[in-house]
DNA sequence: CGCGGACTTGAGCCTGTTCAAAAGTCGTGG
DNA sequence: CCACGACTTTTGAACAGGCTCAAGTCCGCG
């Protein structure tokens, strides 16, 4: 239906894209209307429940996606079951690994989410034809690289308390449009996932959270909903 | 002199580049002869002693470089002095952060090294004009991202012993063309630098190295020169 | 209301740190 | 050629931050 309508406006934006979170994101923001239309014709919107896997570690993936709602976590798993989250992605990020088919990590919905899925071949062709798109994806890759390296510092050199404070700060600044000083948000991650992100155990994460609560740095409601009265204080504790 | 000679062959490879380690690397391998010539005309070969800084964290850098010899370490430093190495780069890697002028990390020679330095403006222009170059740099960025995430797993989830074994394995496979099974190489890093890479202390690194030595997994000569009789064994210990 | 999963709390332990000293290593100069 | 001094590395002993194991509590949901 949406596709049929967009056929009418040869050069117009597909209706499905008009109100899309990712319309001006890394991929779609770099496309011409004609390209957007073609991509849309081969795209599929998909709802994914929290916890369900989008890409499996070690598998060959023949598609890419844009996140249009929710949070996606990127995980690495060791054969013995130890796990590390190596990245979080929010709408309207692009998910996928250009140039290499086999994935060295898994992508999993952290919250209920919505993604727009399209074939690898098609986007690969567009990348080759569209310097602007290549540039845009290159830019996202470099930003993710900066984020990964920042996180390496956290994993290697910060204490448990600093780690937890860092994560809360990260999520507060990414997930919610914070007000001037105070911020409130829902954690997209369970305690177990936070632990896997920070290289800690569930118990340590829990203890550090209650320590922060008792110090008045955060308020915890429902264990998922967090209020930060003073973001500067939180950042100071993150070191 | 080299420049003068290369002027003669309008379309030829500059002589300075003919025997260069980086000639077919990420940047120069993607350039036309004319571009290579232009880049060469504005390039400067520079020797850097081990320990000297190439780019300072927080500074604005107006140049990029190619590594033509040696090993460069990328570091992040906290205000209180804690430090984390977030990447190692070997010849013929490209060093620099396209699109962003201010560096969030410092680049420092780990060994005596040689780099080929060229102006940021010039390469930025070439990137914009040369899809192949953009693609090549994009590719390096994605490879570095994979490496960074692999290292996040190491930092977050591996034990001290596994960390040390992982680093030895990494260096063995990058620095030296290993023989079938056994490998010998010089460590480009001091114990302190290894500790900063692995998120450990000097003492723990030293203890784990002697443990590996006593188990016969490695031989240590001069504390910098390492022999690995069986790489598979080392990899197994890295988990 | 009772069940199940997620989260919190507690006690003891262990890995890796801290602090301290000894042993190499290397360059310099007598 | 060896002695000296600075620095890196190794080794030792005590400590502590975070882990493990084990209950207990909270909360959503049928």
UniProtKB/TrEMBL annotation, chains A, B:
CDD domains documented for this protein: CAP_ED, HTH_CRP
Location of the HTH crp-type domain: 158-232
Alphabetical keyword list: DNA-binding, Nitrogen fixation, Transcription, Transcription regulation
GO MF term (any one): DNA-binding transcription factor activity
InterPro entries for this protein: cNMP-bd_dom, cNMP-bd_dom_sf, Env_Response_Regulators, HTH_CRP, RmlC-like_jellyroll, Tscrpt_reg_HTH_Crp-type_CS, WH-like_DNA-bd_sf, WH_DNA-bd_sf
Pfam families, per the entry: cNMP_binding (PF00027), HTH_Crp_2 (PF13545)
GO cellular component: a single term: cytosol
Record protein name field: Crp/Fnr family transcriptional regulator
């Amino acid at each position: 239906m949406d596709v049929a309508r967009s056929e009418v406006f040869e050069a117009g934006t597909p209706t499905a894209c008009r109100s899309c979170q990712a319309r001006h994101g890394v991929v779609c923001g770099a496309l011409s209307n004609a390209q957007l239309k073609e991509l849309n014709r081969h795209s599929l919107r998909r709802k994914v429940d929290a916890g369900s896997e989008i890409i499996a570690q070690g598998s060959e993936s023949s598609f890419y996606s844009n996140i249009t709602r929710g949070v996606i976590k990127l995980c690495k798993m060791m054969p013995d079951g130890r796990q590390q989250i190596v990245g979080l992605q929010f709408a309207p990020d692009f998910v996928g690994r250009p140039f290499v088919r086999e994935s060295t990590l898994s992508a999993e919905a952290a919250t209920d989410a919505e993604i727009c899925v399209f074939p690898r071949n098609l986007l690969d062709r567009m990348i080759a034809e569209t310097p602007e798109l290549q540039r845009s994806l290159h830019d996202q890759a470099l930003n993710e690289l900066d984020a990964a390296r920042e996180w390496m510092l956290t994993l290697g050199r910060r204490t448990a308390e600093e780690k937890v404070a860092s994560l809360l700060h990260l999520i507060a600044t990414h997930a919610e449009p914070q007000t001037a000083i105070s911020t409130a948000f829902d954690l997209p991650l369970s305690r177990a996932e936070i632990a896997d992100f920070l290289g800690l155990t569930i118990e340590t994460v829990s203890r550090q959270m209650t320590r922060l609560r008792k110090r008045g740095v955060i308020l915890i409601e429902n264990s998922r909903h967090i209020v930060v009265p003073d973001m500067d204080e939180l950042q100071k504790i993150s070191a």
